[in-house]
């Protein structure tokens, strides 16, 4: 049971890392797009 919990914990942590990385990439793209829009004015 404890081994199963550890595996679940690792899956949750890795999933959270993937989500945070994809969020950071999306945020960076939004900032770059915003800078391009502001530079056009």
Automatic annotation (TrEMBL):
Top-level taxon of the source organism: Bacteria
Protein name, UniProt field: Uncharacterized protein
